Amino acid sequence: MAPENKNRATAAAILPLVGGARNIDSIAHCMTRLRLGLKDRTLVQDEALKALPAVLGVVEDDTYQIVLGPGTVARVAPEFEALMAEETSQPPLTAAELAHRGAELKAARKQRNATPFKLFLRRIANIFVPLIPALIGCGIIAGLNGLLVNLGRLTGVTPALAAIASGFMALIAVFVGFNTAKEFGGTPILGGAVASIIVFAGVAKITVFGQTLAPGQGGVLGALGAALLAVYVERWCRHWVPEALDVLITPTLTVLLSGLVTLYGLMFLAGEVSTGIGHGANWLLDNTGAFAGLVLGGLFLPLVMLGLHQALIPIHTTLIEQQGYTVLLPILAMAGAGQVGCAVAVYLRARRNGSLRNTIKSALPAGLLGVGEPLIYGVSLPLGRPFVTACVGGAAGGAFVGLFSMLGDKVGSTAIGPSGWALFPLLQGNHGLGTTVAIYAGGLLTGYVVGFLATYYFGFTRQSLTDLNASPSPTEPAAPKPMEPAHS
Question: Which compartments does it reside in (predicted)?
Answer without folding.
Answer: Cell membrane
